[in-house]
Amino acid sequence: MFDTGKKEQNAIDKIVVGLGNPGPEYAGTRHNLGYRALDAFLHLIGKRKNFLPGPKSRVQVVKIKRKNVLLVRPTTYMNLSGDALRPLLKKYDLEISDVLVVHDEMDVEFGRAKMRRGGGAAGHKGIKSIIETCGEDFTRIKIGIGVPQDNNENANIDWVLGRPTEAEEAILSELMPKIAEGIKVWINEGSEKAMTLFNTQMKSDNGDDETGKQEENSSIEENKTENDER
């Protein structure tokens, strides 16, 4: 039994997972934007960061409009993220559809983000692990990190494990509060409404006028890159 504080005895209604790699050598890298998003969410709701030991994870319970929400930072490496989530689903008798996963995404342009439900891993090893271990019917917020100029396997690994440039940091500082708001809307309103509101806002912020059909086609194209693992 792990300790999440006094609210441990209460039922958990939703789980939000921020993906990343453990250890100081990975702190602040592009691959750890999921961790960073949870910190931004805690800042948004005015809660102090207080992650406690969980099964292969660090966890914190917050209450949002009568919902107890478990924030999860896996302490496995990225390719074993599902091993951190599976025992939590079992412990709290939740379905994978009760989960939101926030992660970096090379197939999305840097500074943009998308929310979607279901689909494939698009080469992301953390998402692949969760799908294989827990199922695919969860909602994701994909935080775009783009691709390096030399788009090959070695360059891609260096890219995701590298730290954002000063210019990128400025963009992320503006993006993270929007990611945090997207998490909050998902908790309060559910996947469908949250996806509509979040994706519309992202398009508006970036001056896009894409249709819903174009968005769906884009999602299909993203999943075609599933063998390009990272």
Topology record:
Elements: E1 14-18, H1 33-44, E2 52-54, E3 57-64, E4 67-74, H2 81-91, E5 99-105, E6 113-117, H3 125-134, E7 139-144, H4 153-160, H5 166-189, H6 191-205, H7 212-223
Parallel strand pairs: 1-4, 1-5, 5-7
Antiparallel strand pairs: 2-3, 3-4, 6-7
Provide a concise account of the structure shown.
With 230 residues, the protein is α/β, with parallel strands linked by helices. It has 7 helices and 7 strands.
Description:
The protein has 230 residues and is of the alpha/beta class. It has a single domain (6-221), classed as Rossmann fold. 40% of the residues lie in helices and 18% in strands. It has seven helices and seven strands; from the N terminus they run E-H-E-E-E-H-E-E-H-E-H-H-H-H. It has helices at residues 33-44, 81-91, 125-134, 153-160, 166-189, 191-205, 212-223; strands at residues 14-18, 52-54, 57-64, 67-74, 99-105, 113-117, 139-144. The protein has a seven-stranded mixed beta sheet with strand order 2-3-4-1-5-7-6. Helix 1 (33-44) crosses helix 5 (166-189) and helix 5 (166-189) packs antiparallel against helix 6. The radius of gyration is 16 Å and the shape is globular. 37% of the residues are buried. Mean pLDDT is 88; it is low at 1-9 and 210-228.
